[in-house]
Design a protein that fits this description.
Blueprint: H1 10-14, H2 18-49, H3 53-58, H4 63-79, H5 82-96, H6 112-148, H7 155-168, H8 174-184, H9 186-201, H10 228-240
């Protein structure tokens, strides 16, 4: 027996021909499908009206009539002729008292509290702009000092990578960004290696007088650390293979 039937109807249900029972079930399912098709629309309408239920009940309003009128007014104000828009504006002024919010020149007049706060807001905006300008100036000076420092010889070459690290949050300071950039940029790292190798290869001065040259050094056993150049190049090879 269909769930919508009362229990006392079970006696009559059992007397029905099976074909009639099947037909009743089919009709019941069709009704349920029809109701479910409109449920989503009804739920959406309910969600729209829910915030205004108190006003609707308090003033005995007809939500369908109000919605219809507002949609009609919106359509005319958006797509109507100037004459039609003037008529709708006059009706809305009559119903909602909008004229009090307009000045003599037809512009919307700012509420009194906004007129009072406006100068203060302008002053706050000026102060904020000054603080931002000062922060930019301080940051610019810090960057200039960092680049000019001899200890940061390759800062100009590393600048694009440093900027990327700072913007992504992977570095918290110029020093950290510089260290990471010079270690992870293969081309820049090779340039640093060449610079250090050249510095290491420069003669440090004339050898001491009356000092015998030491005996020739035996070849390093296999597996022993090589020169500075070999070590640096091995580090570069490991970076490029990552």
């Amino acid at each position: 027996m269909p769930k919508s039937w009362r229990k006392e109807m079970s006696e009559y249900w059992g007397r029905q021909d099976p074909r009639v029972q099947q037909y009743i079930h089919e009709r019941e399912e069709q009704v349920q499908r029809g109701i479910s098709q409109y449920k989503s629309t009804a739920d959406q309408w309910g969600n729209v009206m829910k915030p205004y239920e108190r006003y609707v009940k308090q003033y005995n309003l007809n939500p369908h009539e109000i919605t219809s009128n507002l949609l009609a007014a919106h359509t005319i104000l958006k797509f109507g002729t100037p004459e039609q828009k003037a008529q709708v504006a006059a009706i809305m002024d009559r119903d909602y008292g909008l004229r009090q919010f307009y000045g003599q020149n037809g512009q919307v007049a700012a509420p009194a509290h906004e007129q009072i706060l406006s100068p203060l807001q302008n002053r706050l905006a000026q102060v904020e702009a000054q603080l931002q300008q000062r922060a930019l100036s301080d940051a610019s000076s810090e960057v200039e000092r960092f680049i000019a420092d001899p200890a940061n010889e390759f800062a100009s070459d590393a600048a694009p990578r440093m900027l990327e690290l700072l913007e992504s949050g992977k570095a918290a300071s110029l020093r950290e960004a510089y260290d990471v950039a010079t270690r992870t940029d293969p081309a820049l790292f090779e340039k640093i290696i060449e610079k250090r190798v050249q510095a290491a290869a420069r003669p440090t001065g004339r050898p001491p007088v009356n000092v015998r040259p030491s005996a020739s050094r035996a070849p390093s056993p296999q597996g022993e650390r090589g020169t500075i150049e070999d070590t640096m190049r091995e580090q570069l090879r490991q970076i490029n293979s990552r």
